[in-house]
Structures are given as C-alpha cells and as structure tokens.
Write a structure and sequence with these properties.
Length: about 450
C-alpha cells in the first residue's frame, strides 16, 4: 500500500521518494485519516514510528496545490532542539519540489535573525517552546492563518506555560495535536486547557490512563493450530452467505468486522429485520452509547456485535464464539489482532468471507502466515438459490455440460493442482463481489445480449 491512495500531489510524492518513504505504516495511515477530520487529536506514538508522516503530509499536500507560499500555516513544538532540527530538515526535504519553506527556532539561534525569519512568514515553524514564546510575547506577534499546532513528544515538554502562550497567539480555527509515547498528569492538564474534545489515535490496546506505556506492544503470533476458515463468496451473495452461516450457528455469539461504518449499519438493519439480536460499534460513537451497546453484547443480551471501521486492538472483548471478517482487513497486523481474539481463547474460530475484492488482501495474509486457512463450502441454501432449479444442486450450465458427455464414457476427472501455502486456491466463480466496492452486474440490453452468448 503506497501514499498514492491519499491522492497526493506529484511534488509531495517526489519529496517522499527523495527521503525513501514508500508507504505509510498502519499507524501513519490512521493518523492521516484522523487529521483530515480537522478535530483535535492525542496521538499515542513514539518518534521511532515517525508520526510526522501522518500529521503533516496532509497539510503539506494542501499547501502544494496552492500558488501562495507565504504565511505560517503550521507550528510544530518539540521538547528539544535536536528533534526540532530533524523535523525542520524532514519538512524541507518533503516540501522541496513544492517550494514549501520551514524555519527552525531554538535557543541556540540569534534572536534578531529568528525574529526576521518569523516576520517573513515561513509556511511551517518548528520550535522549542521557550524561545518561540519569548519572541512572540516581546514582539506582540500573532498568527491568523495557522491551521495546525502540533506538540511533538509531549512527554518531553517541561515549559507548558510557554506552550500555552504560543497557543493563545493563534487566532482563528486551528487543529491542535499532541503526540506522546506515555501519559502524565501534566499532559492531561495541558489537554484539558488547550484541546477541545480530543480524539485518541492509537494502535495499541487501551490501557488505564494513569499507567505509563513503557514497553512496546508485541505483535500477536498466529499458530498453525488456530481454527481459521474462509468461504469463497459468489457475486452479489455476501450478505446471503453471512445470513446463512449465522443461521447454521444460531447459538454462537459472533463478532463481525466490516471495512466501514456504513456497512456495519446496513448489516445491523438486515439482522434486525431477520429477528437477530445485534448491536453495531464504531469509534465515532459517544462514550456512553459505545459502552451501553458493548455491554449488551458482553452480557449476552444480543448475540451479534458488528464492528465498523475499527481496529480489534481498540475492542475490549471478553468473549465470543466466533469472529467473522465480513471484509478481509487490508493489513496483516489487523488480521493478527482479530485472530488474537481466538488465540486468547476468546473465540472458537475466525472465518473470512472472501470476494473478488478481498482476494489480494487474503493472499497477502496467507503469504505472511506461510499457510492458508481451511475452505468452508457455501451454505446449502445459498447454493440452492444460485442454482435456481429448486434445490437439486445442479445449475443449467452443469446440465448442459452433462448432456454433452457420451453415454457409457464418463468424463475423466481433472487432476487438482497442489494447494500453495502462500495463497488461496482460485474460486470457481467467474466473478466475485465484495462488501467494500463491489460492482453490480451489467443489466439492460447489453446484459441481455451478453447472456445470450454465454
């Protein structure tokens, strides 16, 4: 997965290539999407994860598409001058082809020169809080066009009064972002003072906010004895396949992961229409609503939990009989996090519904694991519906094929190719459709003519 998916300008893509950044990490991707919501953010990350590729690329891209290159649009505050200089050089490299200038303001610079630099209106200012607040206060400077104020490595900030001074000098609407590897009371106080309803961005499982994060989160390991299954899904049959599978496992409590909130809400309505108890969750829900719905599932009041556009790492799951990937995750790490629910004994199996749009993702997962999940046949009633002949299990196409064989000479069975360990076998369907962006079958006169010549 590359940065092309973000529709970046050619100048920014060239800059990324210059610094040898080919693709975003899962966390950088999550940060990039969160930043575009224009909400205040608290990002749980360390410098090793290079969060700047998530929180600054969007703004630099927006600036690159305009003709104006003057006027400060972003202020990045860091805890030490070494980090400030490193970020300044990174921004200069990324923005080089787009002629985006940045300025570094730290204690070891000359005040008069730094004042002239600020007056020139560099697009991005990277600074330590003490020196920048001193310049702003002494010269009564304000910023009217700043769209982002980022406090990088908040756990290293000692002079929060200076950060507050800088924040008050920003006039107008501005997105404020804190990044931190661990939590503290000082950071919480600063968040309450400077941020408005901040959203937490993290790939780690949620912990007690009073406990400092001092150890990296270990990636879950999937063993070969894990009960993993998949179903090859025919065109326009994903919902039918899901409903038939749930019907065959009536007594199970099931967690169903989807790629979007819209899909989760749609499935919720379908499940309720079919008298199946369900709730849907996503990260944008109010905390009280989220907790109320989740408790209904964990208490056994409902059997089905629909999770839309949300990582398994952020789901405090206690138990489930089954985990279903309605949409196969794009990231191998996310599949592993969902599989961890099984590995911890919280579920008895994990099942993936594999459509045409899901095959690349599931094959990437198989390649990473070194072996493929076990295929489960389509539920019987789905096969009958597809055959369209009253449930005898044979389609018209199969009947024609049988009628062409000579009597007394049964057709010779074809030898099956050995199953590769790094990908699933190709499905027998000529076209598959997924839950994300499946294309409908062509209808009308063209579809009728096409059908005649099949």
């Amino acid at each position: 997965m590359s940065f092309n998916q973000f529709r970046l300008s050619s100048d920014i893509l060239k800059g990324l290539k210059d610094v040898k950044i080919d693709s975003p990490s899962p966390l950088q991707k999550k940060i990039f999407k969160a930043v575009q919501e224009k909400k205040d953010l608290v990002i749980n990350t360390s410098v090793e994860e290079k969060p700047e590729s998530g929180y600054l690329i969007s703004l630099l891209n927006e600036i690159s598409k305009t003709e104006r290159r003057q006027g400060t649009r972003a202020i990045v505050i860091t805890g030490n001058k070494e980090r400030a200089k490193s970020l300044d050089e990174w921004i200069w490299a990324i923005g080089y082809h787009a002629s985006i200038e940045s300025a570094c303001i730290t204690e070891d610079g000359k005040i008069n020169e730094q004042l002239n630099t600020l007056s020139a209106g560099p697009v991005v200012i990277v600074a330590t809080p003490g020196r920048l607040s001193e310049l702003l206060e002494n010269n009564r400077m304000i910023f009217r066009e700043v769209q982002q104020m980022i406090v990088d490595q908040a756990e290293l900030i000692e002079d929060w009064a200076a950060v507050d001074t800088i924040s008050t000098r920003i006039i107008g609407k501005c997105q404020r972002i804190f990044t931190a590897a661990k939590d503290s009371k000082m950071i919480r106080d600063a968040e309450n003072k400077m941020l408005k309803d901040p959203e937490l961005v993290t790939l780690a499982k949620k912990k007690d906010p009073t406990v400092e994060i001092t150890k990296p989160v270990l990636e879950p390991v999937i063993t070969k004895d894990l009960t993993q299954y998949y179903i090859n899904v025919p065109p326009r049959s994903k919902i039918t396949t899901l409903m038939a599978h749930l019907e065959n496992h009536n007594n199970d409590s099931v967690v169903i992961f989807t790629a979007s909130r819209k899909t989760a809400d749609r499935l919720y309505k379908i499940l309720r229409k079919n008298n199946r108890r369900a709730v849907s969750l996503h990260e944008k829900l109010e905390k009280d609503v989220f907790n109320e719905r989740f408790s209904r599932f964990t208490s056994g009041d409902v059997q089905n939990l629909l999770v839309g556009e949300m990582s398994a790492a952020d789901l405090p799951l206690e138990h489930a009989s089954q985990v279903i990937n309605y949409d196969v995750p794009e990231e191998v790490s996310e599949y592993k996090l969902r599989a961890e629910l099984v590995g911890d004994g919280k579920a008895s199996r994990i099942l993936s519904l594999v459509s045409k749009q899901d095959r690349n993702d599931i094959n990437t997962i198989c390649s990473s694991l070194g072996y493929a999940p076990e295929e489960v046949p389509l539920p019987k009633n789905v096969k009958e519906k597809l055959s369209g002949n009253g449930g005898n299990g044979k389609s018209k196409q199969n009947k024609r094929a049988i009628s062409k064989t000579k009597p007394g000479k049964p057709s010779k069975p074809k030898k099956k190719a050995p199953k590769k360990i790094d990908e699933l076998p190709r499905p027998t369907f000529d076209q598959l459709e997924g839950g994300r962006t499946g294309k409908p079958q062509k209808k009308g006169l063209f579809g009728f003519i096409k059908k005649l010549f099949k």
